[in-house]
Specification:
The structure holds 2 protein chains of 2 kinds. Chain A has 3 domains: 163 residues, Aldehyde oxidase/xanthine dehydrogenase, molybdopterin binding domain (Aldehyde Oxidoreductase, domain 4), CATH 3.30.365.10; 186 residues, Aldehyde oxidase/xanthine dehydrogenase, a/b hammerhead (Aldehyde Oxidoreductase, domain 3), CATH 3.90.1170.50; 306 residues, Aldehyde oxidase/xanthine dehydrogenase, molybdopterin binding domain (Aldehyde Oxidoreductase, domain 4, 2-Layer Sandwich). Chain A has 18 helices and 30 strands. Chain A is globular and about 85 Å long. The termini of chain A are far apart. Chain B has 3 domains: 47 residues, Uridine Diphospho-n-acetylenolpyruvylglucosamine Reductase, domain 2 (2-Layer Sandwich); 116 residues, 2-Layer Sandwich (Uridine Diphospho-n-acetylenolpyruvylglucosamine Reductase, domain 3); 109 residues, Enolase-like, domain 1. In chain B, 34% of the residues lie in helices and 25% in strands. A 5-stranded antiparallel sheet of chain B has the order 4-5-10-6-7. In chain B, a hairpin with a 2-residue loop joins strand 6 and strand 7. Chain B is globular and about 60 Å long. Classes of the chains: A alpha+beta, B alpha+beta. The interface between A and B is medium-sized, with 30 and 22 residues.
């Protein structure tokens, strides 16, 4: 059989910017998002949430609310069969111990953050449900809280959970950092602060649940993880095969829909009422209660030789987990592994901790801990270069990881690292420099690189499965449990199957994200779906192709290995062709299956002791370089990003248009993180629960992002693709900070970089803030 | 969220509108372009019993020049003002301010009167009216009254409009010859309310000496702040860099802004000085015939 991993020019569908099947539906508003669903007799649900960040519930009386006409049910913790959601975090350090991250479905005796769910209502209308929530008689007695990780870890601090406020810690020690710094020609020290931010997707958390035939609790929901059907079953104490989750096309996920959102509440309410139930969070509710990105305090000391070689880096990270663990320990692990950046650093020490507070909980968000550290390590890189009078590209070229190098955690880099090329490409893209347009304006350039893992931690033994099969007319069906969060997850699978099986893309139909009917594919997180499910579809398609060509071999009298499948035909070397329907009829007659299920297993490994730097944590990494040209108003501090270029080595672009979309979207979201976005919390109270106060960039606030796609042909995904979902969000904040330093000499170390902070850094304001 | 229930009336004449407003008094809210009222309803920050929609009153919209003033009907869309050649010619400061109000989608619906009656302390239009010493024409059961800006704007979102009254028109003096104007602001994002905004107007005589200047600031207090001391620095001489610097200093000294989520009082004060200097400098440049400058 011919090798279908051919050179790019031999590919017909893969590698082409084909229109995605979901794009038109979205453009004409034909996509049925989770909140667009309705069923006859459907109830509407609402949540009672705590107004306080730390309190005891001293009274919770639902009688009046439950008695209201039109109210179907009011539920509190007492009504939840098993009131705990739990995640195990493998490989946690000996100091903290194995972690079982738990969360109450509904608060029991205590609330630990503002917005924590206390009770649920389902009623005939949304208005009634909300009125009933207001009619619940609840009284709280406020208790002291802690609102910074530093305060949480201080002796005598109020304890958020009985086991103490230190949620997790990781440590890496590689080489002799003290000696490395002592022997360095230059040592740069920096402290960096990143802020709490929200995923701020357009589509808030939403879904509809109903009891389907045979009593199966069916939940149609906006989620990145249909496997939460098991969590729902646990909470409801029903067998796991009695819960079905149907994932919809998402109006954005960004990690915010990785943890359970509405599905457990919907399952409970459907089970208790026997009726369909809908829950849609309001924007305020989403901004108030949804888990967010961890704020970090990061301290870096970086030592380099006079020639610019980094010798050692000493790193301390401290994160705010908020009131519940969620995925904080794993987020911190990502930060720890990526803390020294995409560079060869012989001696590294990382001390990373994350603490409970009574702030809004933090968990997964695009970049997943690989994000915050970019701001620190790329600012440090820039400072070292400036201290040595070196060029931004040059210092990165000297230190860039190369195949065969080791990360501080001990993992050997097994694929090509295109960092120097990426740097040169984005630097060249911003030529020539823009002249300043006024005397009070300075213009500068900034560069920032990153590495982001794609695929899950190797000791989680990740896998994905997919089914690919023909219908009798030669049309093709792909079934795969992948949730499509808007990145083109489903359409990329169609391209891969179409490529291998020689059908036109219009002849492919894809069914995704149904925990009962599609082969499970795992989470749409960790930049893993193209890699994992792409490989599963590739494998299924290739195996199906072999299966079918064995039949074609007899029909055409030519060896299978000499046959080609293109243009909805099987081609023999002598020019004869076989139409797919004819082949499929023969398969049917001979009892040969026209479909095939395949499982792709990622390379697996055993848990790594980070402290001794013993090995592999992630399957592979995606590398990027971004460059920003900014204009700084030296009097008002207003920063405008004039031009922006972002390059990533994606191995192979399956759909260049989708890749560009990921790069542009990620860069814009990263610019929001860098310059604008901040969830402001005062003593645990969220002050930014609307888009009038929580500012995200609009199209008018960002420049065109010039995407630069580099295809090294090295990646673990299908056709050697790498993951590109998360990587582009990483570098923008550092690129802007470095550009401001280039323009003005001022070093911004706190995000977001607001005009006021720039004015302060430029000495325009007297006070400190 | 969704608004709480309310009654709705859409009168077709000012008299009919006044009758409705008179009948419902404080229970009524006037719906003009709806760019502030609708979100406030949805957030349930206001809970009127009745919304009186004045969009069907044609007499309330239009731009006219009368007796040396530009009279702009309260229901004139902001976009119409922005695109009006008459406004650009006769009241360039207003023209300068218009593109900085929200986004053009907002200006397509938003009205001149709606924005003024809403009296957001960071809005652009109140500063323009204050800088130019315009008049706000109000009709009510007792007939018509004309108010100076300092008589109209009271505090955050508060004016001296009585229940039962309707803002029907704003009148702005036509700019004398050799007048240059500028409206500059700093905001968190494109189209957001200003952290600080400055409206400036400068009139020169034939010899290039300043015979009139006005400065008003928005975003630095509960109402627009007229910085008369800042403007006064320029009057009587040829405006030079030193005078402009001094004007900036005086403007910064004249404001007492509050801190909020988006900026500290200290930053706003600093920016008030910088932007006053810049706005006056640009106004001078334009008065000298520097032509159309772009907004910053």
């Amino acid at each position: 059989m011919a090798d279908v991993v051919a050179a790019p020019e031999a590919l017909r569908v893969v590698g082409r910017a084909v229109p995605r099947h979901d794009a038109r539906d979205k453009a004409v508003a034909a996509t049925a998002y989770a909140a667009d669903w309705a069923l006859p007799g459907m109830l509407h649900a609402a949540v009672l949430r705590s107004p306080y960040p730390s309190a005891r519930i001293v009274k919770l009386d639902t009688a009046r609310a439950a008695a209201m006409p039109g109210v179907a049910v009011v539920l509190t913790a007492r009504d939840v069969p098993r009131n705990t959601l739990a995640t195990d975090v493998p490989g946690q350090t000996a100091t903290v111990g194995p972690l079982r991250a738990t969360l109450h479905v509904l608060a029991e005796d205590r609330v630990r953050h503002q917005g924590e769910p206390v009770a649920l209502v389902a009623a005939e209308t949304l208005e009634l449900a909300r009125a009933a929530v207001e009619a619940i008689d609840v009284a709280y007695e406020r208790t002291p809280g802690v609102f910074t990780p530093e305060a949480a870890l201080a002796p005598g601090a109020p304890q958020v959970h009985a086991a103490g406020n230190l949620l997790a810690q990781w440590r890496i020690a590689r080489g002799d950092v003290a000696a490395a710094l002592a022997g360095a020609a230059v040592v740069v020290e920096g402290e960096y602060t990143t802020q709490l931010v929200d995923a701020a997707y357009l589509e808030p958390e939403s879904g509809v649940a109903w009891i389907d035939s045979d009593g199966v609790i069916t939940i149609r929901v906006s989620t990145q993880v249909i496997e939460h059907f098991r969590d729902v079953a646990e909470v409801l104490r029903v067998p796991q095969n009695r819960v079905r989750v149907i994932g919809t096309y998402l109006g954005g996920g960004f990690g915010g829909k990785e943890d359970v959102t509405v599905e457990v509440y919907l399952g409970l309410l459907a089970l208790k009422t026997g009726r369909p139930v809908k829950m849609v969070w309001t924007r305020q509710e989403s901004l108030l209660a949804r888990a967010k990105r961890h704020p970090y305090r990061m301290r870096y000391r970086t030592g380099a030789t006079a020639a610019g070689e980094i010798l050692g880096q000493q790193i301390e990270l401290l994160g705010d987990a908020g009131a519940y663990a969620y995925l904080s320990a794993l987020v911190l692990l990502y930060s720890t592994v990526t803390a020294a950046g995409p560079y060869r650093v012989p001696s590294v020490e990382v001390q990373a901790r994350v603490a409970y507070t009574n702030n809004p909980p933090t968990s997964a968000m695009r970049g997943f801990g690989g994000m915050q550290t970019v701001f620190a390590y790329e600012s440090q890189m820039d400072r070292v270069a400036r201290a040595l009078g070196m060029d931004a590209v040059e210092i990165r070229r000297i230190n860039a990881l190369r195949r065969g190098d080791r990360l501080p955690v001990g993992q050997v880099i097994e694929t090509h690292v295109a960092l120097p090329e990426l740097c040169e490409r984005v630097w060249a893209a911003l030529e020539p420099p823009t002249p300043p347009r006024a005397p009070h304006v300075r213009v500068g350039l900034g560069l920032a690189c990153n590495l982001q893992p794609y695929g899950r931690i190797v000791w989680l033994h990740d896998w994905s499965s997919a089914w690919v099969g023909f219908e009798m007319d030669g049309s093709l069906v792909v079934r795969c449990g992948v949730p499509d969060v808007g990145g083109g997850q489903a359409s990329s699978l169609c391209q891969i199957a179409a490529e291998v099986l020689g059908v036109s893309l219009e002849r492919v139909s894809v069914h995704i994200a149904d925990s009962a009917l599609t082969p499970l594919a795992g989470t749409t997180t960790a930049s893993r779906q193209l890699y994992m499910s792409g490989n599963a579809v590739l494998k299924a398609s290739r195996e199906l192709r072999e299966q079918l060509l064995r039949v074609a071999e007899t029909m055409l009298g030519a060896e299978a290995a000499t046959l080609a499948m293109t243009g909805d035909l099987v081609h023999a070397p002598d020019g004869r062709t076989l139409a797919l329907p004819d082949l499929l009829r023969e398969c049917a007659r001979a009892g040969v299956p026209r479909g095939h299920l395949a499982v792709y297993n990622a390379p697996a490994g055993e848990p790594v002791d980070l402290a001794t730097g013993s090995g592999k944590v992630f399957p592979d990494y995606t590398y990027g370089a971004h460059a920003a040209e900014v204009e700084v108003d030296t009097e008002t501090g207003v920063v405008r990003v004039l031009r922006y270029a972002a390059a990533h080595d994606v191995g192979r672009a399956i759909n260049p248009q989708s890749v560009e979309g990921q790069i542009q979207g990620g860069a814009v979201q990263g610019l929001g993180y860098g310059c604008m976005e901040e969830v402001l919390v005062e003593d645990g109270i969220n002050l930014t629960t609307s888009f009038a106060t929580y500012l995200i960039p609009t199209a008018a606030d960002v420049p065109d992002v010039e995407p630069v796609i580099v295809e090294s042909g090295e990646g673990l995904g299908p056709f050697n693709a790498r993951g590109i979902g998360e990587p582009p969000i990483g570098p923008p904040a550092a690129a802007v900070a470095n550009a401001i330093a280039d323009a003005t000499g001022a070093r911004l170390t706190r995000l977001p970089i607001t005009a006021e902070r720039v004015a302060r850094a430029l000495g325009r304001l007297d006070g400190t803030n | 969220m969704k608004p709480p229930p309310f009654d709705y009336e859409a009168p077709t004449s000012v008299e009919e509108a006044l009758a409705l407003l008179g009948r419902h008094g404080e229970q009524a809210k006037v719906l003009a372009g709806g760019q502030s009222l609708m979100p406030m309803l949805s957030f349930r920050l206001v809970r009127p019993r009745i919304v009186v929609d004045v969009n069907d009153i044609p007499a309330l919209a239009g731009i006219r020049e009368v007796d040396g003033t530009l009279a702009i009907g309260a229901m004139t869309r902001q976009r119409a003002v922005e695109q009006s050649a008459l406004v650009r010619r006769r009241c360039p400061l207003l023209a300068d301010a218009m593109p900085q109000i929200g986004h053009f989608q907002i200006r397509n619906r938003g009205t001149i009167g709606g924005s003024l009656a809403h009296a957001d302390p960071a809005a652009e239009l109140p500063a323009v009216v204050a800088a130019l010493g315009g008049r706000l024409v109000v009709r009510g059961p007792g007939g018509e009254r004309q108010l100076a800006p300092e008589e109209f704007f009271v505090s955050y979102l508060t004016t001296t409009l009585e229940p039962g009254e309707l803002l029907v028109e704003v009148r702005l003096p036509v700019a004398p010859p050799s007048t240059g104007t500028a409206f500059v602001e700093v905001s968190r994002r494109h189209g957001d309310f200003a952290l600080v905004g400055v409206a400036a107007s400068v009139t020169l005589d034939e010899a290039g000496a300043c015979v009139g200047a006005a400065v008003a600031l928005t975003g630095v207090g509960p109402t627009p702040v007229v910085a008369a001391e800042a403007a006064a620095v320029l009057v009587g001489g040829r405006p030079d860099a030193r005078a402009l610097e001094e004007a900036g200093r005086r403007a910064a000294a004249a404001v007492r802004p509050d801190s909020d989520l988006h900026a500290s009082a200290e930053y706003r004060t600093h920016v008030a000085g910088v932007l006053t200097r810049r706005a006056l400098a640009r106004a001078v440049e334009r008065a000298q015939g520097g032509g159309e400058a772009v907004t910053p």
